[in-house]
């Protein structure tokens, strides 16, 4: 992960908290809004933390406004053991404008500025850093060294195939939830040492949002129930999958939850979940689940081993 801190008088992303953008010859970036009221206090840390969990070990660029840098760095310290991120004591490179790569990023950003005839020259890149890195790069103009080079995205020397598989899975999950298929969340839950964890998920969406974190305790209780059922009646056989449909009531729009037990891993340790934020479209959800299941399994094998 590479973090670029930007400063501008323009409002970037007036309505959204963040936007996933692709820049030719550079790759995918997450542009964070500099409009403070877009980040409601109780939602702010959750959105940023989910993005960090998904992309911390990736080649993704984060374009972070100066007003969010302190919070961003604080989340890295608290959740990723990034003790080296103290003041200027982390991998850092100061940037100057005018290079081909920095211009490409600014030209893309300006498309999300709320202004008449905005100019990319009014966007300033203050600094860039890569968390938990001990690599030293001398100060220079533009983006240099191992940060952005050639025609590829950010270069991470020695990146493992495991991390590549993780990125491909997250990209695939994001692709799935962006389609008109009644799927609003895709994630993988693991169980070990009496603890459940969401190890991979799509990036949280702005609309039809699913509280992915809540499924860790939900799955822990469900795994306990599954084990109890098998203990009471071993003739039930091996658990394969389960669909749950909750109807619309009160302020809830209902939901559909499809849980697949990935039997290629030890029993009751790895589950794939597809969730819809409404009660409608179970046929569509199950169709797309079946369509992507083999591809997800192959990538998970690379990631989990």
Set out the fold topology.
Blueprint: E1 2-8, E2 11-12, E3 18-23, E4 27-32, H1 41-55, E5 61-65, H2 69-80, E6 91-93, H3 100-109, E7 113-114, E8 123-130, H4 161-178, E9 185-192, E10 195-201, H5 215-232, E11 241-246, E12 255-261, E13 270-276, H6 282-304
Shape: elongated
CATH class of the largest domain: Alpha Beta
Number of helices: 6
Q: Report the strand count.
A: 13
* Low-confidence runs: 84-98, 133-159
Overall helicity: 25-40%
Strand order of the largest sheet: 3-4-5-1-8-6
Q: What's this, in brief?
A:
This protein is of the alpha+beta class and 305 residues long. It is built from six helices and 13 strands. It has two domains: 2-130, no CATH class; 161-304, Dynein light chain 2a, cytoplasmic (Beta-Lactamase).
Explain what the structure shows.
The protein has helices at 41-55, 69-80, 100-109, 161-178, 215-232, 282-304, and strands spanning 2-8, 11-12, 18-23, 27-32, 61-65, 91-93, 113-114, 123-130, 185-192, 195-201, 241-246, 255-261, 270-276. Helix content is 31%, strand content 24%. Helix 4 (161-178) runs antiparallel to helix 6. It is of the alpha+beta class and 305 residues long. It folds into two domains: 2-130, no CATH class; 161-304, 2-Layer Sandwich (Beta-Lactamase), CATH 3.30.450.30. It has six helices and 13 strands.
């Amino acid at each position: 992960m590479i973090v670029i801190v930007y400063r501008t008088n323009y409002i970037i992303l007036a309505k959204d908290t963040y936007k996933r953008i692709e820049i030719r010859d550079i790759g995918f970036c997450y542009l964070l809004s500099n409009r403070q009221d877009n980040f409601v206090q109780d939602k702010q840390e959750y959105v940023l933390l989910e993005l960090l969990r998904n992309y911390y070990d990736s080649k993704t660029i984060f374009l972070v406004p100066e007003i969010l840098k302190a919070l961003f760095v604080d989340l890295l310290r608290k959740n990723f053991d990034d003790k080296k991120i103290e003041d200027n004591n982390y991998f850092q490179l100061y940037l100057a404008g005018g290079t081909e790569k920095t211009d490409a990023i600014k030209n893309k950003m300006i498309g999300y500025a709320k202004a008449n005839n905005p100019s990319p020259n009014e966007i300033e890149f203050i600094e860039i850093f890569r968390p938990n890195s001990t690599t030293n790069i001398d100060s220079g103009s533009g983006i240099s060294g191992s940060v952005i080079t050639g025609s590829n995205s950010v270069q991470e020397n020695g990146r493992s195939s495991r991390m590549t598989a993780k990125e491909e899975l997250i990209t695939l999950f994001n692709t799935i939830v962006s389609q008109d298929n009644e799927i609003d969340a895709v994630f993988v839950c693991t169980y070990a040492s009496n603890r459940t964890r969401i190890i991979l998920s799509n990036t949280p969406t702005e609309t039809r949002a699913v509280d992915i974190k809540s499924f860790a305790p939900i799955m822990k209780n469900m795994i306990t129930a599954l084990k109890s059922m098998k203990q009471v009646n071993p003739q039930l056989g091996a658990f394969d999958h389960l669909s749950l449909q909750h109807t619309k009531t009160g302020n809830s729009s209902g939901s559909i939850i499809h849980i697949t037990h990935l039997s290629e891993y030890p029993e009751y340790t790895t589950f794939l979940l597809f969730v819809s934020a409404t009660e409608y479209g179970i046929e569509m959800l199950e169709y797309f689940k079946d369509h992507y299941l083999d591809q997800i399994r192959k990538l998970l094998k690379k990631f989990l081993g």
